[in-house]
C-alpha cells in the first residue's frame, strides 16, 4: 500500500470518527423504576433480503426470501424477553398509528447542551405517557450503510437493502454477514433522554456494528438460496436484538454513558 493511499485512508477514518463525535449531556435525577413500561414500534418485513455485492456492479443484485420465522413477532418476543429479564420491564407492542401524527421517534433532542423534549411532538408524548409508557423504541427496516472501500481516489459505499443476508464477492472470494439493516430509535419520554446518542448504542448501530460475520459454505447459486441457508442469518439478527436489549437494560437501570465530547 502506497504512503499516499495509507494517509488517505487514515484521513477518511478520522473524518468518519469526527462525524460520529457528539456531546452527550449528563443524565441527572434519573430514578430507575421497578417495572418501566416500554413500547416497541416495529416496522419490518417478514421476508429477509439478500443483498449481494459482486466484483463489478454487473454482479450486484437484491432478492427477498420467505422464511419460516415471522420477523416482526420474533423481534418483539426477543426484546420483550431480554428487557423483562434484565430490567423487569413491561413491554408492549405499540401500533404506530396510535398518535394522530403517527410519531414513534424524535421526542427528544439536545439543545444548548441539554436534554429537551421536542415541542412539536408534545401532544403525542403526553398521549403515550398517559398510558404509563416510559420508553419508546422504534425499529424500522431501512437501507443502511454496511461497508466501505476506500482508495486514494475516494470511497465506494455498499448498502444492505433490508434486514437479512449481506454477501460480498470479490474475484471468487465470498464473505457472508447477517445484516441488521434497521434505523433504531430509543428514547425515554417520561424524562428527556435519547439513548440513541450514547456510545454503546452508536457502536451497535455503526456501519460494522450492524453486521454479524457468518461461516457458511458457498452455495451452488447465490441467486437461488434455500430456507436452510437463512437459519444462521436469523440467529445473527437475534443476536443483534439481544445485544440491543442488553444495552437498553443498562440504561433502564440507570447506567448511562455520557460524554463531554464537543
Automatic annotation (TrEMBL):
<keyword id="KW-0732">Signal</keyword>
<protein>
    <recommendedName>
        <fullName>Lipoprotein</fullName>
    </recommendedName>
</protein>
<feature type="signal peptide">
    <location>
        <begin position="1"/>
        <end position="18"/>
    </location>
</feature>
